[in-house]
Amino acid sequence: MAAIRRIAVYCGASNTVPAAYLQAASEVGRTLAEHTIGVVFGGGHVGLMGRLADGALEAGGEVIGVIPERLKDRELAHPGCTEMIVVETMRQRKEQMEQRADAFVALPGGLGTLDEIFEVATLQQLDYHSKPLGFLNLNGYYDHLESFFDRAVADRFLSPTQRAAFSFRDNFPSLLEELRAHE
Fold first, then answer.
1. Residue 22 belongs to a domain with what CATH number?
2. Alpha-carbon distance 178 to 183, whole Å?
């Protein structure tokens, strides 16, 4: 695999979540910029998405937003992105993010976050790509998901090799190191 130049980061778009999640998103953006790794994200200016982009931009990083026209029209687009790609549908957004990224990370989030990371995980499992992916397990947020994957292996819905492709780390530097180990 080639070096990681950009990481697609999936995360929540709510400002009402615990402050630790918002702060962590900002730190992830800053860390990626410091490692000269661009951010590909959902293009929003609110919640973890906005903090992620702000952190990367403040550190001089590349930030590529991909947002559906419908959300842009609701004035949810982040105004400071290095590049903003406007698409028609959420499916197109996921496709554009996948194409532009060399790895994928899920920060805490809701249904949209899970939808996006599960799609790239499924595509990886089906050999459509071999890009690494991981979950930033802040405050145990993804503990139950990690247990679910372990159960899926035990019940043979997921192979141990496929399970090993999903990294769970509680701090971003170690998650980034794990993703880079796939290079």
1. 3.40.50.450
2. 10
Tell me which amino acid residue 35 is. Answer: H
Residue 1 lies inside a defined structural domain of this protein: no
Q: Provide the percentage of residues in the chain whose pLDDT is more than 90.
A: 92
Contact by Cβ (8 Å): 53, 22 = no
Residue 111 neighbours by CB under 8 Å, 6+ apart:
none
Would 79 be classed as within a structural domain? yes
Task: Dump pLDDT digits (tens) for 112-128.
Answer: 999 999 999 999 999 99
pLDDT tens per residue across span 58-83: 999 999 999 999 998 787 899 999 99
Residue 156 resides in a domain: yes
Entry pTM: 0.95
Long-range contacts of 62-69 (CB under 8 A, 24+ apart): 62/6, 62/33, 62/38, 63/29, 63/38, 63/39, 64/6, 64/38, 64/39, 64/40, 64/100, 65/41, 66/40, 66/41, 66/42, 66/93, 66/96, 66/97, 66/100, 67/42, 67/43, 67/93, 68/92, 68/93
Convert the pLDDT of each residue in 87-104 to its tens digit. Answer: 999 999 999 999 999 999
Please count the structural domains in the chain. Answer: 1
- 54, 46 in Cβ contact below 8 A? no
The whole domain housing 123 covers: 6-180
